[in-house]
Design goal:
heterodimer; A: 8-stranded mixed beta sheet; two-stranded antiparallel ribbon; 32% helix; B: 7-stranded mixed beta sheet; 36% helix
Chain lengths: 390, 198
Amino acid sequence: MPNAIPENSVGPDNSVGLVTPETLHFDQPLELACGRTLSNYQLVVETYGELNEDKSNAILICHALSGHHHAAGYHSVEDSKPGWWDNHIGPGKPFDTNRFFIVCPNNLGGCHGSTGPNSINPETNKPWGVDFPSLRARDWVQSQARLADHLGIQTWAAVVGGSLGGMQAMRWALEYPDRLRHAVVIASAMKLSAQNIAFNEIARNAIKSDPDFHDGHFLENSTLPRNGLALARMIGHVTYLSDEQMGNKFGRELRSGSFQQGQDTPVEFQVESYLRHQGDAFSNSFDANTYLLMTKVLDYFDLAREYDNDPVKAFSNALCKFLVVSFSTDWRFAPERSEEIVKALIDAKKNVSYAAIESNLGHDAFLLPNERYEQVLYAYMERIATEVSV
Amino acid sequence: MSIRIDLDIIQQWVAPQSHVLDLACGDGALLKSLKEHKNVEGYGLEIDQEKITAAIANGVNVIEANLDTGLSQFADNSFDTVVMTQALQAMRYPHLVLDEMLRIGKQCIVTFPNFGHWQARIFLLTHGRMPVTKELSYQWYDTPNIHFCTVKDFEVLCAEKNILINQREFVAERFLDKQIKGICPNLFSNTAIYLLSK
């Protein structure tokens, strides 16, 4: 006989336990950077912890390319895995839910409940599909500012993000300088390199060349470009890992077949099987048009474009303090990219601290446990907690 | 090491509201103190992971960097004062770090342990071995302090490089040393503090 489950009974003691996402509707039209307007939209959001009386303890978590609003805790007792940043969010964790009110929305254009390509276009009464307006990081930031308004939060104690999430945190610092005290920018960059864009374009091509893509109108054709999306994810996934980590994890281990003389059975390396599994799992849970849209947001992001391509000039608008973190084997957003951010901030005479974390886990390190990474986050969040008296 | 006296003297040489770069900032104690007493905003560079975490917790701006290679990113004259306390002896190329400090800062403050102190001399004379002190207790083969110098060594280097010594102060620990350090700083001071410019 199932009883009502107390929130803290799911997961380990330092988990936020069971969480329920909330869907918020916004009727004020949102003018987008591309010139188009969303007349109304919804954002699905998870929050953890309590907003304090003077509303000073709120932290915005911005997700990365394939992330979503479910950053911590469990949706049901059957969930085998918690949210994507459960390592860092919870009671006693760096983003301590005993002290902070943590807000994590699914971004516009996403496929986990916020308005995106899978939503119905009110003008056609059909799913937007590939016709969903193209977005920029600043559009997300604007929608997140509306979210803050809705929650009664004038100033975030911190805006935090890894990778594409870090780009949003930096954009926040320039667009709404007086609405955040701190920006925590992890494994990120001020703009993508040609190599980054190239990998994204290969991924997009994989999706578009799937016969089930139907020029992006696959929902109307009741198909899904699973193969293309899986291939796109396989390509992306390789860029998130380090050579060393793949070597340690898989080496040249075989999953099936053998190289014995006289045998002609098909050989499958463990790494092939792993990648295929990653691709298949992703293609069943993610939307191909969202993937195209999000990779474009990444490609188009250029923090200093409208500041005469001068990052110092760009950051001179910021008022918040910054923590920048990089990981040694991250070759997607290498430590050099973080050091460019730090240099621009120093030249702009802004408050910044920088930690270069030793890790063999590549770009994915920002999502994974690492003692020093956690210590740095703890120390920085402790300082924020002191500032906002929580 | 009389670190407090160190910091007090440095504090006197740093102008209020100025822009300071602290090389090998440790846990950020100097920057924190400068911020509190002189309203100085600055950055500390540090390579030790635990010290970086401590500096973050102390609320100062700390940048993870290797001083032997990481100073080229800073523009000429971009700081009012560049400080390095008790770290010159740990640099791979102390003379090049000095050049870099004087390029980046309008003025520089350097402190180092003086190996010309009589105790070090007596240690070498009587034991015939490299001096090991209570504060710097490393053995010669396993120490971060790879370039010890004396007050005289340092001033010879400054003369060779045409570095101006604007001010110098000496810190002694023993009562008698304190009384007579002015006679021969190289013999009686434990720590030397220099204010330099080009």
